[in-house]
Amino acid sequence: MNSSSRELRQPYSRFIPLWRILPVLLFIATTACTPDNKASKVFSGYVTADWLYVSATNAGKITQVMVKPGDHVTAGQPLVALDDTAEQYLEQRAEAEEQANESTYHDLVKGARPEEIAAIEAEIEEAKAKLKFEKSQKVRWQKLVDQGLAPKEMLDEITQRLKVASAHLKALQAKRKVAELGARDDQQAAALARVKAAKFSKLLAQWQRSERTLKSPEDARVEEVFYYPGEVVGAGTPVLALLSEKRIKVRFYIPEKQRANFHIG
Asked: Are 110 and 198 found together in one domain?
């Protein structure tokens, strides 16, 4: 989970422990006292430091502050927890939507269930039996009509029933084929798109929840804690301030004649 932070580059006007800048001061004093520095043993200047302010991306109530002023923290260490009840619900809803859309997609891809296909097969067998019966009836009545023992209208009626039975069987066979093939390509594509959208919604919900825990962006020391459990902070409002060694700077002025005695590093 990533922390949300912002740097406010301002002069550090509060107390800085002497031990933090002692090596620099000793270096300046030692250099200033060398034989080559007879012109001046004191340099004027000042100490500055940049605080790193840690804040939340969204407003919320603080539930836990895990550090106190003076604590040393490492990069990635949790510092403050905000209430994440709403984010938990959003994540659970996103997971449910993802599962529902995946089920719909798989159902469209694989076609009808075995039970549905079995029911269609049963209808097909019944239609075949009906067609076979109508064919036998036509043969029987054809003989009677040819012998003059039955009216031609009866044969016409049997022929019509045979056509209906044949058409019904073909319709059932086509229905079975469609059931085995599954949904159309465009329907499957739309369902797959919904699955992908649900996955992104889930990732967004997880990120929003992770943002409710503020973490240290670097190794530093906790200088100030501005808010405590139970208090509500706005988006971008600093909750605490950190200070690392690399953010402390000593600025001093060296006469031009003595600059040759100072070297980078």
From this structure: yes
Q: Which of 47, 58, 56 is nearest to 20 (CA)?
A: 47
Phi, then psi, of 43 in degrees rounded to 5: -115, 135
Q: Provide the domain limits for residue 67.
A: 5-83+214-261
How many domains, in total, are found in the chain? 2
Going edge to edge, which strands form the sheet with 78-82?
213-215, 78-82, 60-65, 232-233
Q: Is the whole-model pTM more than 0.70?
A: no
Same domain, 68 and 147: no
Residues 6+ away with beta carbon under 8 Å from 160:
none
**Along the 265 residues of the chain, how does pLDDT read in single tens digits?**
444 433 333 433 444 554 455 455 545 554 444 455 455 567 788 888 889 999 999 999 999 999 999 999 999 999 999 999 999 999 999 999 999 998 888 877 776 667 777 888 899 999 999 989 889 988 888 888 888 887 888 888 888 988 998 999 999 888 887 776 655 677 778 888 999 999 999 999 999 999 999 999 999 999 999 999 999 999 999 999 999 988 888 887 888 877 777 776 5
> Which amino acid is present at 23?
P
Residues 115 and 173 in one domain: yes
Q: Judge if 79 and 103 occupy the same domain.
A: no
Domain termination site, one of 153, 169, 202:
202
